[in-house]
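Subject: sequence -> structure tokens, single chain

Hey, anyone have a minute? Need the predicted structure for the following. Not urgent.
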Amino acid sequence: MADSGSEDIAVIGNTDLTPSESENNIKNAKKPMIEKGTSLLKRMEISVAEAEKRTGKNTVNMQETYTVYLIETRPVDAALEGTNPVPDSLWRRYSEFELLRNYLLVTYPFVVVPPLPEKRAEFVWHKLSADNMDPDFVERRRVGLENFLLRVASHPVLSYDKILYSFLTEENGWKENVFETGFQAKADSRLKALNATFRVKNPDKRFADMKHYGDDLQSVISQLLRVRARAADRLYGVYKVHGNYGRVFSEWSAIEKEMGDGLQSAGHHMDAYAASVDDILEEEEHYADQLKEYLFYADSLRAVCKKHELTQYELEMTAQDLTSKKQQREELATGTVRTFSLKGMTSKLFGQETTEQREAKLKMLETQIEEGEELVKERNAECEEFVKSAWVDVEMFKEQKDRDLREALISYAIMQISMCKKGIQVWNNAKECFSKM
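Reply:
Had a minute. Here:
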């Protein structure tokens, strides 16, 4: 990286926060880890124990039905000591989980923030309900919300956030605490920056590659989930065909004296096999949810890369402004105008500035240049800290991703092998029934 005092600045990172805010967030987030030494999950048992459907009025006074989730927490020390006290509990809506995650995204722009489970079912086989109030979907979402909390509570930075602790332990007043942080204003400014049209002159290849990887990961997992949904449709059809076998064998057994018992037994095996499809496909949805988590993780990964681009852009703009002011100082000092400007043309038309005016402008520019140099140094330091912290988190995410996806795919393969073995066993049983006729 070039020296921060030079005109060619090597730009590194980004955040929508001011330089001091971003740097303080990073330092303050790391400080408790040194003082306490353990993440929140090692100090507190956390679970989303159940879901409950409720009816009430929304913000526009309309009746609505919604789902709330019971969060239970208990100190780990108490469980280890065998006292096993009644856990503290409170109810949260899905929208409150969303608010927590949005706060974390804005407050910790260098972190690959864990995703929430899907709000509405996607990539499902067509026999499964896509209704977000369906009991099976609500149960899977409950598991996903618990996984989200466990991910956050075990993170080396996020787990020490006071708002997270408040979310888990204070049913009333939590939202007020969130809004008092002012994160929404920061989120709005970030949104405006994201919509701005700009080009980063010196992109960091590591983050550019990681952004492309996030795009590719999301594309591949989307394709995999679509293939799995089609395969599940076919699997459902195969199992239901076995149900038809069972019905036919049972009807056939009613008209056969000699072969009746064998046909009826074979029919029972077919019926039992066909009835097991719902449990099997529900288990398949569990593996699909594990893949979906990383489908949404890809968004979090790209978000960190975009924040890095914004930091680069802000640093480049600061450096460009400093260069411009230095050029103005040189022009004033020498009386030579290097580039066309409206001020220069006006000066030629209406006469030169007085010596006093020029000296006053030079003095003001000197002050602005000094401030600009300090700002460039601050933003360079901020960018370096952002890159350092973000890359540590990205590497940790990659290790977690490799481990989780490997385990999920192995488990999925084992489940498929088990299903095939059950199918073979069913036909072996049917073969024995036919042999005894």
